Every structure is written in C-alpha cells, then in structure tokens.
Amino acid sequence: MEQEREVTRAIGAYLERVAAELGGVPADEKDAILQEIESHIYDALQKRCGKSPSIEELDIVLGEMDAPQSYRRNQAPAGIAVTQGPRFCKYPIVGAVFASLSLILGILLWVCNGAAEEPPTLLKYIMYATLVPGLAAPVVTTALGLVGVSAIRASRGRLIGMPLAVAMSLLYPLTGLTAMLTFGVGHSARIFAPGLDMPRMHNLVTAAACLGLVVAVVVDIFIISRVWRWASRPVAPGEPV
Amino acid sequence: MNAWITQLRKGLLEFCVLNLLDERENYGYEIVQGLRDIEVLAITESTVYPILTRLCRDGYLKFRLAASPQGPPRRYFSLTVLGRHRVREMNEYWQDLNVSIERLKRHGP
What we know:
heterodimer, A: mainly alpha, two-stranded parallel ribbon, elongated, B: alpha+beta, 3-stranded antiparallel sheet, 3 strands
C-alpha cells in the first residue's frame, strides 16, 4: 500500500515536471498529453513487472523515457501554420436557404389563392420579398448544390456537407421528374381507355398516377444512390471534380 | 548532418504516425513502441504524444476510451475520414518524391 502511494507520488512528480515544460501549450492539449504520458508509464510498468510495481522499477521505466525537458524542445516552433479541422461547405447552405424561400412562397401562394378575402398586408409583403428568390430557387439551388459537390470533392476532406450538397443538387430535378412521371402516366391512361365514363376515367387516371408515382420513386432512389456513390468516393489524383 | 537529419525526422513524424494508424487503431504506448522499432527515425514519446494531440485537434485522428489494467483509461486512436484523405495524399506525394529524387540521382535535373 505504502509502495503504491510512493509510486503514485513519483509519477505525479514526473508529470508535474513535464507540465512545467509544456508551458505554452493550451490547457486542454496539455491535459491530453499528460494523460497519455501517465498511461504510457503504467503500460510500461505493466509490461515490465505486472501489478504492484516498486519505486525501483518505476525509476527504470522513467529512466528509459524522455526527460521532461524534451517536451519543451519538441514543441512545434512558432510560425508553423496550424491546420484547421474540416469546415462546412457554404454553397449548399445558401442553396437550402433559396429552397426554403421557394417553399414559403409556394405555401403563401396556395393560402392566398384559396382565401376568399384579401390576404393581410404582412403576408403580401412576405410574398413580395420571397418572390424573386423563390422563383430563382430551382436554378440557384441546383447550381449551388452542384458547385458544393465539386468543392467538397476538390477539398479532399477539408470541406464537409456532401449529403446536403447532393440533396440540393437533386431536389428540383427529381421533383420535376417525379411530377412529370406521375402526371404523365396518369393522364396517358386517357389514351388507352377513351370511351370510359367520367367516374371510371377518374379512377383509372388516379390509379395510373399512383403507378407513375411508384415508378418515379424507384427512379429517384436509383438516381440518388448512383449520384451519392459517385460524389462520396475519393478523388483520384488528376481526376476532374 | 545532424541538423539535416533532425529536420527530416520532424517533417516525417506526422507521416509515420498517420501511416501506423492507417492499418488499425492503437493506443499511445503501442504507437510509441511501433515507431521506436524504426531506429533511424529515433522517435520517442516526447515527440509522439504532442503530435497525437495536435492531430486530434486538427481533425485527422479520433479516439475512444477503454479501461486499462492500471492507471488512467487508454485512448485508442484511429484515423478520421479527413485523416484517411491526408495519409493517402501524403503517401502519393511520398511516392512521387521518391521517383523524382531517384531520377535526379541517376540523370541529374
């Protein structure tokens, strides 16, 4: 027990000397380094003598390790650029803002068209404010999504946000494709059964539209998976992004 | 000569640590022992542990804690996605550098 306390005290003293040499290092990094060194000492003791090491065995382990002064000498010299961690790519975020404004505009137009009375002034102002970005959203969001995908691939891990970039680049094209397939298949049912009465024609068109929707969803999933596989694979040297 | 070797070793340290962890995750003591086996590099714990901390801070490494028989919990380090990109880039550059240096030695500039 006394021997264990002595060993713990001696390890603490060594770590304090190392801490003094790591003067300029930020506190959280210093703590991480000291924890690693402490872990190293115990692993070395474990390897040498198993449980209950003696102070003599600790002295041997510490003698084989670097002196505390080495930690001051081995700090990165001033002037070496510190690399940043990964950042979120801004292009798909701006694209998402345009898509949101388009959604707001769509909802407001639907609400105002369905209302019997004149819409409130505030709603009208919001509609005017979102009109231009809302109408531009299909082009702008898609373009920014594609630019985002390209930028993230070219950054080789420095930029993140590929899921959002792929989503923005595919949002409007796939929405258009889904709408085309759903309504196209639905209305093409009229060609195949021209003589049906109205209720049956309506049911046929609805059933055909549902079929068109299912086909559209399958096609969408296929396109999304292919695009995601291409976008998320690493860029080979010299490959255009 | 010693000064040149020291500078070269400093430049290679991150490269060695990332390559070691590219194969599998590992904890501090084993990382130091693995790098110590490369005698010409003369890498010791006072160079490795600050590098491990910096690489974590910069997003190239992540770690998980696991209990150890004695002392504080061990940190098992592994590469992040950014770290894998980085080590791939470093290895490609190292290969190009090797080829270029060999060509220089054989034929001149």
